[in-house]
Amino acid sequence: MAGKLYIVSTPIGNLGDMTKRAMEVLAAADYIAAEDTRRTLALLNSLGIGGRLLSCHEHSSPAKIAHIVSLLEEGADIALCTDAGTPIISDPGAPLTELAAQRGIEIVSVPGACAAIAALTVSAIPAKKFVFEGFLPRDKARKQALKTACAHPYTTVLYESPHQLAKTLSELAQICPERKIAVCKELTKLHESVLRTSVLEAAEHFQKEEARGEYVLVLEGAKESTTKEVADDEIAALLRTFIERGMRKKEAVLTAAQQLGVSKNRAYEIMLKL
To answer: 53-90: per-residue pLDDT in tens?
Structure first.
């Protein structure tokens, strides 16, 4: 009988956020697949938990992933955890869950801390609907990604490093300077803080103050008047991206319309011209 793959959330800063169930699963697992075995070992030691560790990170080879799945097929229960927070959410693990699902392995969620959700709850920005963008690209796609983030009619959540924070805020300020933003620093940690202000004021703040720690940005969604200004070439670029990813045309049109806040008819007409 095949084992189970447990997706285990771990604290993003405060060890007290480790759930009882997560500790029980880690203690009972035959193996623990970790993003960084050294950091996970330190967490396990602090909790008084032993365990056989396997590495599973963004650079793990297909052969390594296949080996972990073979252990599951042989009956081993394996807990997947990353350095902090919830695996898969801007963290390694997707290739493992994809292959495990293909092989018929049962995948079980052990929920807990997630920086994106924590930031939304303290942002004081409406979160009935939101878009999670994670880390922005560093290549040529960055400019379009920033425009897309500002065009979303829903609240947008971004992750950012301290080294890129000032640059990202400055670039956002060029597109949507008056938009509300919450800059959440070191959530659940000793130096946790939340700066709730406009994008322009946040950009000016971090031109003067050095950014330190880990950041989550919660950006207010675009108003209707803003979404109407989305250019045809921006819609076309997003449609091309979705098609290149393997989306069907109908799905690409619907997704682009939702993300950019334009009508489906307009997105469809642009699709016909591609």
So the answer is: 999 999 999 999 999 999 999 999 999 999 999 999 98
CA distance 131 to 154: 6
Assign a CATH topology to domain 4-113: Cobalt-precorrin-4 Transmethylase; domain 1 (3.40.1010)
Q: HEC states along 107-148?
A: EEEECCCCHHHHHHHHHCCCCCCEEEEEECCCCCCHHHHHHH
Distance CA 54, CA 31 (A): 7
Q: Across the beta sheet with 78-81, what order do the strands follow?
A: 53-55, 31-34, 78-81, 4-8, 106-110
How many angstroms from the chain centroid is the CA of residue 104?
26
Closest CA to 147 of 268, 274, 260: 260
Arch. (CATH architecture) of 116-227 = 2-Layer Sandwich (3.30)
Radius of gyration of the chain (CA): 21
Burial class (CB in 10 A: 0-12, 13-18, 19+), 152: buried
pLDDT tens column, 17-55: 999 999 999 999 999 999 999 999 999 999 999 989 999
CA nearest neighbour of 194 among 115, 86, 135: 115
pTM of the model: 0.79
Residue 150 near residue 199 (C-beta atoms within 8 A) = no
Q: What is the 3-state secondary structure (H, E, C) of 209-264?
A: CCCCCCEEEEECCCCHHHHCCCCHHHHHHHHHHHHHCCCCHHHHHHHHHHHHCCCH
